[in-house]
Write a structure and sequence with these properties.
The protein is of the alpha/beta class. It has 15 helices and 14 strands. The protein has helices at 60-72, 107-115, 124-137, 157-160, 166-172, 181-195, 249-257, 261-270, 273-278, 284-292, 296-317, 330-335, 337-345, 356-359, 384-395; strands at residues 2-8, 13-19, 24-32, 40-45, 51-54, 87-92, 103-104, 142-147, 204-208, 214-219, 222-226, 325-329, 366-367, 376-379. It has an 8-stranded mixed beta sheet, with helices on both faces. The protein has a 6-stranded mixed beta sheet with strand order 11-10-9-12-14-13, sandwiched between helices. The longest helix has 22 residues, at 296-317. It catalyses: acetate + ATP = acetyl phosphate + ADP. The record marks 180, 241 as: Transition state stabilizer.
Length: 396
């Protein structure tokens, strides 16, 4: 069985073709600048030379047409015909309360995704465009939606209800949803394997640390709390997002700077976080380099990020009967040796210790804690595409 995994952004599209008999990636690629001048597709068939094609792409339908052409190209493709694609799995960011698990897409499901556009205006519209484009290009192939929010639908009310008048939850579904659920679910399953435990018996704190970051408390294999909220803005200080903030700051700044709602939304989503603090970059590698060169604001940005990670880890430990492991994943979590060391150094008071030699690793499944650590610490590279493909295979 061959499954095509699609992840549509507003002007980009990531894809993988996976052979589910072996779970090997056959081909993968990235389409950039859809609807913008300079659009291109970067395609790689495993075992062949990478191919970059620059060509105008006015919309996601044209982008997906080029993906299909690349997959079937005689020179650099991987399949002879689109008939070899058995199903398509789509990453959908927001399923609201409507979807607690992955589903086969039909008209009712598509309407449900559209109904959640209001609470995910940046994410769900491109996801919908990708689904509709695939329906036109592959009319006889089943499509599956895998939701970032679904894993967190097991949170209890005390974890997701805000301290606002309850009527706003009833009228508008203003509540904490959480995100990165597909990543946290993959990590939960993989950590259970590495611990040699049934996934329904494992307690974890999973740290998805990247340009967008979130932490999840997992009890008996299920999410019971997570740092992101109604939107992906809440929680940690991220690449460009402010994270937790006194809400009274927003009208104060709007009044002082004469900002509109749209302008303040741009400020807290795209100009804040470690970029806003450091003034250097939203890329943690750039900030670490600036810190090492003596930039005090760069050091401050990293210190704030690490402090908030430790704060959430400590908080979630109080929600769990015991913790089997803390897991680092995503771009920063998987690759920043120094970041993991700094975060865990502040957890020594509760007996968490890293082994420096074991921690000297990037992008591998590995135990990095010392033998006398009170809690095991792992690095596990996330694989959302494989999780989407597995769900798709199971559903069809």
């Amino acid at each position: 069985m061959k499954i095509l995994v699609i992840n549509c952004g507003s002007s980009s599209l990531k894809y993988q073709l996976i052979n589910m008999e072996t779970e090997d990636v056959m081909a993968k690629g990235l389409v950039e600048r859809i609807g913008i001048e300079g659009s291109r597709i970067k395609h790689e068939t495993i075992g062949k030379e990478k191919k970059t094609i620059e060509t105008p792409m006015q919309d996601h339908k044209r982008a997906l047409e080029l993906v299909m052409e690349s997959l079937t190209n005689e020179e650099y493709g991987t399949i002879k015909s689109l008939d070899e694609i058995d199903a398509v799995g789509h990453r959908v960011v927001h399923g609201g309360e409507d979807f607690a698990q992955s589903v086969v897409i039909d008209e009712k499901v598509l309407k449900g995704i559209e109904d959640n556009v209001e609470i995910a205006p940046l994410h769900n519209p491109p996801n919908i465009m990708g689904i509709k484009a695939c329906q036109r290009l592959l009319p006889n192939v089943k499509q599956v939606a895998v939701f970032d929010t679904a894993f967190h639908q097991t949170m209890p009310e005390e974890s997701y209800i805000y301290a606002l008048p309850y009527e706003y939850y009833e009228k508008y579904k203003i509540r904490r949803f959480g995100f990165h659920g597909t990543s946290h679910r993959y990590i939960t399953n993989r950590a259970a394997e590495m611990l040699g435990k049934d996934v329904n018996e494992v307690n974890l704190i999973t740290c998805h640390l990247g340009n967008g970051s979130s932490i999840c408390a997992v009890k008996n294999g299920k999410s019971i709390d997570t740092s992101m909220g109604f939107t992906p803005l809440e929680g940690l200080a991220m690449g460009t997002r402010c994270g937790d903030l006194d809400p009274a700051i927003l009208p104060f700044i709007m009044d002082k700077e004469n900002l509109s709602t749209e302008e303040i939304n741009t400020l807290i989503n795209k100009k804040s976080g470690v970029l806003g603090i450091s003034g250097v970059s939203s890329d943690f590698r750039d900030i670490e380099e600036a810190r090492d060169q003596g930039n005090k604001r760069a050091k401050l940005a990293l210190d704030i990020f690490e402090k908030r990670v430790r704060g959430y880890v400590g908080s979630y430990m109080t929600e769990l009967d015991h913790v089997d492991a803390i897991v680092f994943t995503a771009g920063v979590g998987e690759n920043s040796i120094e970041m993991r060391e700094s975060i865990c150094a502040g957890l020594k008071s509760i007996g968490i210790k890293l082994d420096p030699e074991r921690n000297n690793v990037r992008g591998e499944d590995k135990l990095i804690s010392s033998d006398d650590s009170s809690i095991k610490v792992f690095v596990i590279p996330t694989n959302e595409e494989l999780m989407i493909a597995r769900d798709t295979k199971e559903l069809i």
